[in-house]
Amino acid sequence: MKNYQKLKGLVAATFTPMYPNGDIHYAVIGQYAQHIVDSGISGVFVCGTTGEFTSLTTEERKQILEHWVKAARGRFKVIAHVGSDNQRESVKLSRHAAETGAWGVGSIAPGFFKPASVRDLIGFFKPVAAAAPELPFYYYNMPSMTGVSLSVAQFLQEGKQEIPNLAGVKYTHNNLMEMGDCIHLDDGAFEVLHGYDEMLVCGLALGAVAGVGSTYNYSPSVYLNIMKAMEEGDLASARAFQMQSIEIVKVIIKYGGGVRGGKAIMNLIGIECGGCRLPIAPFEKEEYDSLRKDLKEIGFWGK
Amino acid sequence: MKNYQKLKGLVAATFTPMYPNGDIHYAVIGQYAQHIVDSGISGVFVCGTTGEFTSLTTEERKQILEHWVKAARGRFKVIAHVGSDNQRESVKLSRHAAETGAWGVGSIAPGFFKPASVRDLIGFFKPVAAAAPELPFYYYNMPSMTGVSLSVAQFLQEGKQEIPNLAGVKYTHNNLMEMGDCIHLDDGAFEVLHGYDEMLVCGLALGAVAGVGSTYNYSPSVYLNIMKAMEEGDLASARAFQMQSIEIVKVIIKYGGGVRGGKAIMNLIGIECGGCRLPIAPFEKEEYDSLRKDLKEIGFWGK
Amino acid sequence: MKNYQKLKGLVAATFTPMYPNGDIHYAVIGQYAQHIVDSGISGVFVCGTTGEFTSLTTEERKQILEHWVKAARGRFKVIAHVGSDNQRESVKLSRHAAETGAWGVGSIAPGFFKPASVRDLIGFFKPVAAAAPELPFYYYNMPSMTGVSLSVAQFLQEGKQEIPNLAGVKYTHNNLMEMGDCIHLDDGAFEVLHGYDEMLVCGLALGAVAGVGSTYNYSPSVYLNIMKAMEEGDLASARAFQMQSIEIVKVIIKYGGGVRGGKAIMNLIGIECGGCRLPIAPFEKEEYDSLRKDLKEIGFWGK
Amino acid sequence: MKNYQKLKGLVAATFTPMYPNGDIHYAVIGQYAQHIVDSGISGVFVCGTTGEFTSLTTEERKQILEHWVKAARGRFKVIAHVGSDNQRESVKLSRHAAETGAWGVGSIAPGFFKPASVRDLIGFFKPVAAAAPELPFYYYNMPSMTGVSLSVAQFLQEGKQEIPNLAGVKYTHNNLMEMGDCIHLDDGAFEVLHGYDEMLVCGLALGAVAGVGSTYNYSPSVYLNIMKAMEEGDLASARAFQMQSIEIVKVIIKYGGGVRGGKAIMNLIGIECGGCRLPIAPFEKEEYDSLRKDLKEIGFWGK
Question: Considering just the CA atoms, what is the radius of gyration of chain B in Å?
Answer without folding.
Answer: 18
